[in-house]
Amino acid sequence: MNTPILLSKLKSLTLIIFTLVLSCSVQASHPNLVITQADVLDMRKAINEQGRFATAYKNLKAKVDLQMALPIEVPVPKDGGGGYTHERHKKNYQLMYDAGILFQLSQDKTYADYVRNMLLAYAQLYPTLELHPARKVKSQNSGKLFWQSLNEAVWLVHTIQAYDFVYGALSAQDIKRIETNLLKPVALFLSEGQPSTFNKVHNHGTWATAGVGMAGYVMNEPEWVEKALYDLEKSGKGGFLKQLDELFSPQGYYNEGPYYQRYALLPFVTFAKAIDNNDPQRKIFQYRDGIVLKAIDTTIQLSYSGLFFPINDAIKSKGIDTIELVHGVALAYSLTKEPGYLDIAKQQNQIILSGNGLKVAQALDQGLAAPYPFISVAFGDGSDGKQGALVIMRSQLAGDQAVLFKPAAQGLGHGHFDKLTWQFYDQTKEIVSDYGAARFLNVEAKFGGRYLPENESYAKQTVAHNTVVVDETSHFDGDVEVGNANAPVLSYFETSSRGTVSSAKIDTAYQGVELKRTMALVNLTELEKTIVLDVFDVVASGEHQLDLPLHYQGQLIDMNFALSVSTDQLSALGAKNGYQHLWLKGRGLPEQGLAKVSWLNENGRFYTHTSLVNGQEEFLFTQLGANDPHFNLRNEQAFVRRVNNKKQHQFISVLEPHGEYNPGKEYTLDAASQVTQLSYSQQGEVMLINITIAGVSYLIAINQVPDGSIKQNFQYQDQSFSINSRLAVFALNDDEE
Fold first, then answer.
1. Which residue out of 260, 304, 451, 492 is catalytically annotated?
2. Architecture of domain 247-374
3. String of b and e for 487-516 (b: at least 16 CB within 10 Å)?
4. CB within 10 Å: which end of the chain, N or C, has fewer?
């Protein structure tokens, strides 16, 4: 035979053999996303041993077996969020994921066949679909299976993992049908079909890039992976890495707030793990100084008593047991072996069937958990960490207490117009509250489960929060773009054994008005009490009406000033910017001195808000629910401190937890406020608050000197004092700090 021809045939044969070997190796490498073959081998061993992991496996198997006994349903999409078809498709992707992992662990092909049959049903349906019939008319991100493409991306993130689990059990014909008619069209629809969403630095973009990138790894489409990482043009101006750059501060705080940090966490954690397994040379968990791990840890810190702080568009019932953080905690423990993460995992009480989940389960079985260290911290906002901050103050002196102070950035479209607002938590309950989102999530009867109109007309408006409102107009005049372009300045933050103090300011919320707020959670160790100190300064170029609302949870008990109350007819507090939703129920004008308002929370504790007033502050007592024809809003209470025609004003107050009410055992303790004196003065850069509480006189000094020399000396009541920090507390009775 001619030598060149022989060499040509040998080369062709070699290429064929190489292709076959590569094909076999690719097939053998599945699963190759979050869970690897090495993980599978370890997990198969663990399900035959005693422990949390085996229990979780048995529980999931029993649950999935019940579902698999029912007919597969892949309905034509019809409903919005919360409707039957919407929920059915959500249930389907979770079932496929669960059945897929059960196949890997049990090696029972019944589970693979179930996933195969459902994927084939979707492959038959998907090519017939137009945009979803329940989509928003003006929406730029409509889905096909779901009313918005965000849900479609979530579907793909789960479904591509299910496909990865069963890939090795599928025939070549099935693979072709599933990829050609379903998975590739979904991936292309979410990327090339919606470039504005795919390239967007936003949680919608995060889910889309994660789903498409993971599909690229499974279906050997490296170009998809590159586009998912760097945007459709691979310019680096968008994509997954840009989202890691811009959506998180250097400390791992997510710009949209805790609720959306929790939601966005799953695609970040899941895609990062897939990247690490497939492209370890990218060192994704070292990217930006370990930003993925920081984001997980920060998500935990952004919670109190198991629930996330409800700022911005938040559903208040979401907490650390959410599945996104279950995956996050499992990854964090796998990377660090920090025992505090096991404490959170124990509280979550959910073991996921993955390599990371196995490590958590085994460590919990060995009793390695240690208390997670919740701390007082200021999380810088914005990609550079300098666009304000979200401040958490904590104390364990009188029970588990926390103040959330919000001199943070706007938070994109989910942000609320509430610069320098605050919330207070005590004994597991929210005391000074924030409304969160006006939405009944997935309750289709309430506006299709979407955000209610009142989310815009009330929940986002400044009066719905605990911060100053100028002339009944919301911050930035309710303009999101202006809000996103302007953030408060965090002047300082400090924490010590005496408490935590922080101050911030902003001069762009209103033209010609500077707002400055200083807050402190102060430990009065001699009394084993804490108080919240609040000093709000407003300085303007012209005269304005200034309102400072305080929204509280509980039953109003008493106030120390006369109140004129509307008992048979109510009117709204105002006409717009959220005021139209507040019934005005009563009003009072306290005399100069101390104005006190007390309420009782469901935790059985009393709270008194004591204000230092000059005789010109009117107190307006409100109840939410005016101009709400569909009863969409919760009936919540507030009182508003109001002054008129002011160029400058200082709102000074103290919140005091006290006493106990036990109706079951029929006793009440210390129902009355123990604050008997409150005064304010300023010496240079030192703010001085003299408070007498429970017979003890304290001088609280807050050092506001700009960065530089912090030590300050001052005189008070013919005594010499020195402060070498931001916050000092002196018990004047015995002259000791």
1. 260
2. Alpha/alpha barrel (1.50)
3. bbebbbbbbeebbbbbbbbbbbbbeebbbb
4. N
